[in-house]
Input
Amino acid sequence: MLNRAYVLGKDVNTDLCCSGKYLPGKDEAFIASQAFEAISPGFASRFSSGGVIVAGQHFGINSSREQAVHILRRMGVSAIVAPSFGRQFFRNAINNGLLVVECDTTGIEEGDEIGLDLEASVMTVAQRQITRVLPAVPEAIRAILREGGLIPFLKKYPDWQVAA
Output
């Protein structure tokens, strides 16, 4: 399946996605309408559900603000591809069912159609003749993502255990 790329730069922190000035007191729909406004004016209004955010290194650095992932899910972000992520953000994304993929994003431009094949561990951008090998996503993580996050996964599979 192909998804449209929405490009952001490097060092995009969680406050740029989900500004602390809106918390608490504003609902998620309002906050989502303001996402990334400080670095890409009008980003939220240009973004279409199902799109992929393509960013530079260190996406999601700054804090453990889980609301940032909630806002991205509300916007309909299907995945985020970046060379590196803040570790807390990376885990919050998986726990909340948002695919995050560490990969070189050089050469990908706004509007490109990106294919992410987790089974084959490949990302493609056909119009730019880009094919990149992705780090393998463990089956347990793919299962968590398929169920929409860790809590829905554990509710569905209460007896699940990590294989020895």
In short: The chain has seven helices and seven strands. The chain has a mean pLDDT of 91. The chain has one domain: 2-156. The longest strand covers residues 2-7.
